[in-house]
Design a protein that fits this description.
Layout: H1 8-17, H2 27-30, H3 33-43, H4 53-56, H5 59-68, H6 78-81, H7 89-95, E1 99-103, E2 106-110, H8 116-135, E3 147-152, H9 154-160, E4 173-176, E5 181-185, H10 196-213, H11 217-226, H12 230-237, H13 252-258, E6 264-269, E7 272-276, E8 282-285, H14 287-293, H15 305-317, H16 326-338
Parallel strand pairs: 2-3, 3-5
Antiparallel strand pairs: 1-2, 4-5, 6-7, 7-8
Bound molecules: zinc ion (ZN).
Residues 202, 206, 307, 310 line the site of zinc ion.
């Protein structure tokens, strides 16, 4: 006698009676779309536990389920039960009808109603961000300018995105790594003190970091160096015997003064820092001279390497690098452009 739990009609009947009966069905029938739909109709989100998880994470399977059981959209925990669909716009389009606007190669998706004025000003800011990214000395930055930019009220955002980190509370904008989308919380547009185009460039910089660079040990080293305190930074950078003068003389102006031959630190004493070249020519610098040449940037407002990366991109792209940040910014540019 054949096992009745392999029989689709039999299982369908059992599930209609009690969705938890799906537990006994064969693996193949746990992936069956008709049976899944029936189970979700009967049990709502609880039925998810009995359906094959891989099947549920399949976009077409899920879309068919949503079409057949639209009540599921009302379930608050729907997205959380299936994290693999976070940020999937096909699902969003099945849940509600977002407005989509093409701007260059980017599709701006409006999840929520928005006033004409706010939308116009957001678009202007977005165009400013695009122009800045295209003109940025970070040569490959412009490659992030495609895909979807999401704008909406927080409740609509949480309908289709699971935060990468703790929560969306008080977050004006974020980059969602799993769906590779930049998302903007539109309620901030009514009162935010932060310039929107800076925020957009910051979030696109996260995308740049994620898509193009992943993790680079050179960026990690640079971050660690930039985050040293002022005094640690000075100590770490004071020249040691044998160091070339060019280590602390990065500017063109200074190397012109020094001439073409390389000087090395011979001694540190009452005369100061004595550099000497192969012909015996000396250059003597006081400790004050040296400290003036060591640039120790202490403030980037960065709480981790990813934020440091994004802020550096903003500073460089908008040409807002302060003199004290110049050294780190130049190294940053050199590293990123060589990758
Ligand atoms: Zn950030």
């Amino acid at each position: 006698m054949a096992n009745e739990w392999n029989n689709k009609e039999y299982v369908l009947e059992q599930v209609q009676e009690d969705y938890t009966n799906l537990e006994y069905a064969s693996p193949k029938l746990k992936r069956d779309i008709d049976i899944a739909i029936e189970a979700l109709r009967q049990g709502g989100l609880d039925a998810v536990n009995y359906i094959d998880l891989k099947a549920l994470q399949n976009r077409n399977f899920l879309l068919a389920v949503l079409k057949a059981v639209p009540e599921l959209k009302e379930e608050e925990d729907f997205l959380y039960s299936m994290p693999a669909i976070s940020g999937n716009l096909d699902i969003a389009r099945a849940l509600f009808k977002p407005v989509e606007i093409k701007i260059g190669d980017i599709n701006l998706v409006l999840l929520s109603p928005i006033t004409e004025d706010i939308l116009r000003s957001f678009k202007e800011n977005f165009k400013k961000a695009i122009s800045a990214i295209i003109a940025s000395p970070l040569r490959k930055f412009k490659s992030v300018l495609k895909g979807h930019l999401i704008l909406g009220e927080i409740q609509d955002i949480t309908n289709i995105f699971i935060p990468d980190e703790d929560s969306f509370e008080n977050i004006e904008a974020f980059y969602n790594g799993s769906s590779k989308k930049v998302v903007y919380n539109q309620s901030f547009l009514y009162f935010s003190p932060n310039p929107t185009h800076h925020n957009l460039v910051h979030e696109y910089a996260h995308k740049y970091h994620h898509l193009i660079l992943k993790s680079s040990p050179l960026i990690t080293q640079l971050y660690e160096r930039a985050m040293l305190s002022e005094s640690e930074c000075e100590l770490a950078q004071l020249p040691k015997i044998g160091d070339p003068l060019s280590d602390i003389t990065e500017s063109r102006e200074w190397s012109w003064k020094v001439g073409s031959s390389e000087h090395y630190l011979r001694e540190v004493g009452v005369r100061g820092y004595v550099y000497i070249d192969s012909k015996g020519d000396e250059i003597i610098l006081s400790k004050k001279d040296i400290l003036n040449r060591i640039k120790c940037p202490s403030q980037y407002g960065a709480k981790n390497e990813r934020e440091f990366f994004a802020e550096m991109c903003v500073l460089i792209t908008f040409n807002k690098v302060k003199p004290s940040q110049r050294l780190i910014a130049n190294k940053f540019l050199e590293i990123v452009n060589s990758l």
